[in-house]
## 1
Amino acid sequence: MAVIHDIMPAFELFQPPTVEGAVALLDRYRAQGWVMAGGLDSFDWLKDRIKRPSVLIDLSQIKELRGVRPWNGGLEIGAMTTLTEVVRDPVVRERYSILSTGAEAAASPQIRNQGTIGGNVSQDARCWYYRSGWKCYRAGGNICYADTPTAINREHAILGADRCVAVNPSDTAPALIALDAQMVIRNSKGERVVNAEDYFIGPGIDIMHMTVLQPGDLLTAIRIPAAWAGAHFYFEKVRDRPVWDFPLVNIASAAVLSGNRIDRIRIAVNGVAAHPVRLKQVEDAVTGKLRDRATADMAGQLAIQGAKPLQHNGYKVPLMRNLVRRAIRGVEEATWAS
Amino acid sequence: MGIVEWARSPWGEDVPIHIAFYLIWVCAIAGLLFMIVHAIWARYFAPPDAYADSTPPEEAARIPEKIARHSLAARMFHWVMALAMFVLLFTAFLPRVGIKFPWVTYHWIAGIVLTVSIIYHIIHATFFMDFWSIWPDKADLAEISRRLRSASSLPRRDAKYPFANKMYHAVIVLTGIAVTATGVFMMWRVRTPIFPRNPYLFGDMTWGLMYVLHGLAGVGLIALVMVHVYFAVRPDKFEITKSMIVGTMNKEFYLKHHDPERWAPESPSSK
């Protein structure tokens, strides 16, 4: 069980001023090095003494990791750009409002002032069994405490569970997948670019990590192509309280319409699996169809196929179905049904 | 640095959770070292391939050109088990050394194939084969005793299986039973269509010991399989390997290495 302390544990602190410096440190310390962006995930782990890195690499001094800039007709957002900066950026608001809406839905104003978009997409699972320090699968053990007959698992996965049933808690992740964003990753061997939907991984592939980032890797930027700029966007987050809460389920969609017909669409949902789920089958099924109630109902039903709720999270199935219906049809037309 | 990793359970009990994964490398390196050392010994230091006894010519003349060694059923078991074993080893250990893929489903399916094939083999070997031919017998022990007392003497010819083969089989039986028995119970910890998931089937300590035993048997199988494949591809053992494919070995090899008194020759048609 976690022992909560008010003071930070001892570690060697590095504050490199450049990406090259940070990458060199990451290469030098590998698994012993802990990358800190805004610190909102890191401080919990460190003060609870659950993660005990010997080296902390604070990225806050690296100016090139901050800011929103034009890129190839789209945008490049530095990984250390705060969520508030993303929310307030006029180009993001005008052309990619789904992202500003998603970023604004995260946490609270204070947290968005400090939290970064790179941290938001790379944060660890919020399963309290895991965060409390129990040696579960995700922590290297051999059990999922949330997937037991008596577990408290109201917030956990209904899709893609493989031993671990934790969910990805990011609000910006589904928006970035809907926008077909790319994640720019640097390490000592160079740079690689990964599609946003491939950046997140489930427990079947790596039960101890939520992203493809490996020791030595640094997420430096997120690129958003022009292809979905100004599309018809939908973002909705359902949570227990209106502020400072993780999503129970959130959804993001970007659609290009011809009149009322869906020409192309991308939909991603989060809070239902260990990684944000792109609903490719739903996209294929609704492409070319009228954006009407029948299409929305069909999409909602298709989205929840294969869902396997746990003891206490059965509500997520109709919730996800209704959110998909609303993403297709719009809030005003889609009624809630259990 | 222990060979077992421990954790504190929610009830404050220190329980084992699994083996230390460096044992993967220990066993792989041990298997590799064995192959290198044996290959050097066989090439430069091994005594000539000669035996103390031989079959009289008139008796040898009555022996068929092809000696039946493994029935089709036995061969099929062997290759199904081998395939399952490789799938199990690769799915278990590749993710541990950095090659990531969704391995769990492949692993338990291969585990079921292995378990069923072992059950089949036990029944087949017990009721339809010469069950005791693969286990060390008095003659083996007497031969070992004789060679220990007179190391320079030539060895006597083997029964159907050489003593080293019998010992290897015994070790494989132990590790195979350990890994499959624990593996079957571990299926209650993951989602499969076969068993309803129930992590409370055993207590934390029992589960932990089961994971440790499964891990120890699993890493042991890395070395055992490496050694087995090594001998299978050695030119001097090729006739034995070939018999596991075609079912027979030739008369010349049989007469040189096997004692008809201990393993009566049968032609393939009689099997």
Note: DSSP finds nine helices and four strands in chain B.
## 2
Amino acid sequence: MTVQYSDAVRDAKNDVVETTIGTSPKLQFRSGAKPANCAAADSGTLIAELTLPSDWMSNSSGGVKVKQGTWTGSAIAAGIIAHYRLKDSAGTTCHEQGSVTITGGGGDMTVDNDNVANGQTVSVTGYQKTSGNP
Amino acid sequence: MNLTRKLQYADAAIRSIAEHDDESASNVLASLQALKKRIDELAKAAVERRNSKKSK
């Protein structure tokens, strides 16, 4: 059975992620496999922590929501970025996590370079949410 | 997500509370009044936050 939604519902599903996480969330890049779920403790080495813009995603449109503004920060440790955790503005509660690859690598989020040196700039090149409608 | 879109969702949520006809009128009114109080608190905090940024 395939459930289908209007664009208004698809957009609302996408947009509620942004309002629930809140403004200026913290995006952490970490090495190794991601934890079992968002409630689980952090894993791997924290390689970079970015503070995202206050309004960090566009209005969802046609069931697709893309990142807004520049998502860039400096690495605080050397390592290979393998997953991200998106936390509230205090950096305490994880609300989302996923895989990270270089641009074109098929990760849930892509960066310009996943093998970074301490102090190197890390930039997010791709991140979007699609509320599917088969 | 811009302010206009957020207002649209907030309006839809508030309307949904107001039209909760399976709840007693007193429950609905109490919910809406609590919301009004919360909005006043948040508005005050938003102004104070801006004022404190200006004074820095």
Note: DSSP finds one helix and eleven strands in chain A.
